[in-house]
Amino acid sequence: MDPETRQIKLALMGVGRWGTHLLRNCLAHPQLQVRAVVDPSSERLTTIAQTFHLDASVALLRSWEAALNIDGLEAVAIATPATTHEAIVTAALKRQLHVLCEKPLTLTANTSKALCQLARQQNRQLFIDHTYLFHPAVMAAKANLNRLGTPRYGYAARTNLGPVRHDVDALWDLAIHDIAIFNHWLGDFPTHVQAQGLNWLKRSNQVQLADVVWCRLKYASGFEATVHLCWANPHKQRQLTMVCDRGSLIFDEMRPESPLTLQLGQLEADTFSPIGLSTESIDIPKQEPLATMCEHFVQSVLTNQSSSISSGIVGTDLVAILEALSKSLNQAGAWISTQ
Q1: GO: which molecular function terms (predicted)?
Q2: CA–CA separation, 153 vs 267, rounded Å?
């Protein structure tokens, strides 16, 4: 069958806030045929079926195990809580299915590595939905980095007044986005990390979760980054900056009309006076990152080739970094190796 017209039969697990966006994009893709939608809530399934005008060919199921038994199924997309990922991904891969999994892949690097190994054994693709890596501004930034010279340091802020999670802390909820972007731009991952945080909000289950976290990342090249994370902050911030020796790159989602800016300029060698100053806004194509991610997943399945952008290995590296940051957080900010 022509790979340009072949449809991939897919089941989608979980239609919460993010799963609903994922379903919308899967339904819109001409080479994805959604055969089942899974969610434990019957009411939620009814709402989804009405919202998206799903016909009788799409099974509405409360059990992901039942979805794996659908004849002709080729792939699954998983947008369930991270604690469920290991079991669902394992079962899907053992059924010879390709897997698109919401981040984080799992909650430990060891379990993530095991899933990558299983995917290789089964000759199936394990693709992680790190949507920011498919954001047109992030992709354009990587293409323009060579204009700025040697990367020196970076900083990011991801804060807002809510939403507050009750299952993970602000670190696991928010940090993965900015770390993934820094790693992607640098083509590397940090060797050592540090995290410190504070807990203010009192939850009914008495779980102590950090509501604000400051992270530091050290890379082998000498590049360092600082990330500020908080879900109890009055200012909504979604900004990431990389400072290089000939200028800086600024990605600011709160400026949707011009999210990517190059601030060119450097310090003169003898007097250290600023020279060559200019600001350039980079044109960004109007495309939804999640739609681009779905297209990459489709191509990965059709060619049975691992993604160079967001494979299971990339997802595993990010889980290992989060694990190391959690260890640092629990050790009052000690520097922890990611190796």
Answers
A1: nucleotide binding
A2: 16
Going residue by residue through the chain, which has 339 residues, state the pLDDT in tens, using 9 for 90 and above. 566 678 999 999 999 999 999 999 999 999 999 999 999 999 999 999 999 999 999 999 999 999 999 999 999 999 999 999 999 999 999 999 999 999 999 999 999 999 999 999 999 999 999 999 999 999 999 999 999 999 999 999 999 999 988 888 999 999 999 999 999 999 999 999 999 999 998 877 667 899 999 999 999 999 999 999 999 999 999 999 999 999 999 999 999 999 999 999 998 888 888 988 999 999 999 999 999 999 999 999 999 999 999 999 999 999 999 999 999 999 999 999 998
> How far, in Å, CA of 260 to CA of 217, rounded?
23
8-131+289-311 and 133-287+321-337 share one fold: no
Place of tokens 């970094």: 321
**If you ran DSSP here, which 8-state letter would residue 25 be given?**
H
CATH of 8-131+289-311, one of 3.30.360.10, 3.40.50.720, 3.40.1000.10, 3.40.190.10: 3.40.50.720
